[in-house]
Amino acid sequence: MRTIRTRVAVIAATAALIAASAGTVAVAQDATGTPENGDQHETATTLANDFNAVDRNTNWQLTGKLKLNFPTYHTEGIAFSEDHIFLSAVQIIEPTVKYPAPQNGFDRSPGKGIGHVFVMDKAGNLQKDITLGEGDTYHPGGIDFDGTNLWVPVAQYRPNSASIIYRIDAASLDVHKQFEVPDHFGGIVMDRQTGHLVGNTWGSRRFAEWDLQGKQLSTWENANYFIDYQDCQYVPNSKMLCGGVTNLPQTPAAGGAGATYELGGMAMIDLKGHAVTRDVPFQKWSTAGHVATRNPFKMTADGGHLTMKVAPDNGDEGNGTEILTYEATVARSPDLGYPPIWEE
To answer: Any residues with CB less than 8 A from the CB of 318 and at least 6 apart, and which?
Structure first.
């Protein structure tokens, strides 16, 4: 029962934070007005501790494929609420083109496109197509669901550009333009402990923290060059778990520098100390031959059992976009973690 109360308190706190977004940020309190911190350790230990037991020898098994039967374009991020699956994607109308030399601070043309957030039921049936973006800002990135709202960064499709941070009410599906930032941010999480948003830039080379009005509170460089984070999620307390990919050159026999292979992986980042606390490669492959952590990525844990949901393939590749489920069991001490949000 403590775990259930904790989960309700977290969701209620997040709702209070959004309601206060025009003013000060609220803190979850009990009936006496005291901040509710007593049960944080229980919710913190499940996914954080289970992921800390993952290594290169962890036996991940593909246990499910959910085929999406509508145009999904280039998939970016995924999230799950009690009622919906959310998938962000970019529809490219005109590709960007690299300049011979930088122009006005940009290394490429803006291109043209449409940003989408697809809202599905649990069977993968499309319920709504939400289009996001303005002008050259059309590229949705990794997304995060905080228990009440879906957070979506939409950026120009080039580094050192600009982004709009959107908030979508997961129940009403109403869209709110939260604020704008002067850089490309390709991923975002809501830190439920602070009520702040944390985003990562192009290639995840830098992180920034904002309040809900868009005031930048801190920024830091990513000292880790293992992978580029594509889609992240919040993990109690004040951590973010990211999946991603990097393209590395092949040997001369395999095509040389003109040919690449995809190195996938996952990383846990401490949002207080700003350090990567654990990163692990992940080399499982999709129907189209992409590494599974290429873009959309989310994970849950339940007593040493991890479940990962990914959707690496574009709509025009392989068998089209499939939501793949991987599962693994790790050795760790049991705790009272709550079940995955996408379970019925």
So the answer is: 286, 287, 288, 289
3-state DSSP call for residue 271?
Answer: coil
The CA distances from residue 110 to 93, 115, 134, in Å, are 11, 14, 12
| Domain 2-329 coded CATH 1.10.3470 | no
**Cβ neighbours of residue 222 closer than 8 Å, sequence gap 6 or more:** 200, 204, 205, 206, 207, 276
Whether cis (ω within 30° of 0) applies to the bond prior to 149 is no
φ, ψ of residue 115 in degrees (nearest 5): -90, 135
3 state SS of 200: strand
Residue 259 in tokens: 């040919």
**Between 336 and 328, residue with greater pLDDT:** 328
Closest among 334, 342, 344 to 302, alpha carbons compared:
334
Q: Give the pLDDT band of residue 314 (cuts 50, 70, 90).
A: very high
pLDDT in tens, 292-310: 999 999 999 998 999 999 9
Those residues with Cβ within 8 angstroms of residue 157's Cβ, 6 or more apart along the chain or in another chain: 90, 96, 110, 111, 113, 138, 139
Handedness of CA 65, 69, 70, 74 (dihedral sign): positive
What are the structural domain ranges in the chain?
2-329
Q: What is the pLDDT of residue 333?
A: 53
Q: pLDDT (tens digit, 9 = 90+) per residue, 68-119?
A: 999 999 999 999 999 999 999 999 999 999 999 999 999 999 999 999 999 9
What type of residue is 289? Answer: G
Closest CA to 47 of 222, 198, 242: 242
**Interatomic CA distance for residues 157 and 96, integer angstroms:** 7
